[in-house]
TrEMBL record:
Protein name as it appears in the record: LacI family DNA-binding transcriptional regulator
Residue ranges of the TM segments: none
Highest taxon above the source species: Bacteria
Swiss-Prot/TrEMBL keywords: DNA-binding, Repressor, Transcription, Transcription regulation
Amino acid sequence: MTQPKKKRISQAQIAKEIGCSQALVSMALNGHTKGISEKTYNAIRELAAQQGYTPKGMKIEGSLGEFQQRTIGYILRSPLKLANKSNFFSHIHQGLHEHLLEHKLKTVYLGSEDDINSSAGSFASHFPESVRGIAIMGEVRPTFLSQVLETDRPVVYVSARASGQCHSVLSNEFESGELLVKHLYDLGHRSFAWLGGGKPKGRHDDRLTAVEAALAKRGLSLEKPAKVTLDGADRNEGYQAAKQIISQMDPLPTAWICLNALMARGAINRLLQHQVEIGTTVSIAAFDMTRVCEEEHPTLTSAGADPEVMGREAGRILTHSLETKSPGLTDVTLPAVLKVRESTGPVPTAVAR
């Protein structure tokens, strides 16, 4: 015997089931989100997908499985790409991913700042409907940020800030600078060097300012040849910065602070070639909390917030924004901690005061 064809649910039945007006159901099924909470919008479309509701002229996700693939997109700052993604942002992505899994969301790579800007397609074409929120990893150009904000999704800026424009999550750079300088000062060091770089220079400037403030508090300052800032912030730039200091200063500063662990590794390579002992003749520390600090010897003394915690916090902000539709913006600055490792030690006896 032929089974009777299952009757599909009507808009009125969806409205009754969800507890909203039929007009609201119609708007949601047509893809309109203005004036509808995220929770109600999702509930309407999920129920419609479950019941196979596909009226003529209205387009909803083709299946419940497709509907449930809600994502959070992430963008890497210039010049980063997946092939050369910063070690720091790899940790942030891990934390973001772990938090979103708890909320049945996944991350999707939308591209780098450079990729999206150079694409032949429209800017909006990079942001499919399934992308409910966006995490920008690192400082991008203001014009690019404005374009992302115009996609009308919640945006969180990680390791950068645009007050009044979007959410942000940062490490406490001022606290990190104070922790690093205090640690080295307490070991007897009075001669310091700074090795920095990168573009844009927002994070660089925050860290350098923190170091200089901590030194000034102790009646110290950076000599001009001991303050090196290059365009990049990788191992090669650390190597080149160390090479420059070695060529211009004798005796060398005994305490070197680097923008990140990768620059510190490059600087250590150059110092070792110059037969300088690390942790005895010269102590090196960095603003960093990534695995680069521990995966090679000497291990690196460092300070900063845990980047995986930063990623989880970015995820928390986005999921809260999606669930509550709150118009407010959140700026979170996470506390820094100091990890003392092999790369720092007491000032050499010959130069101790």
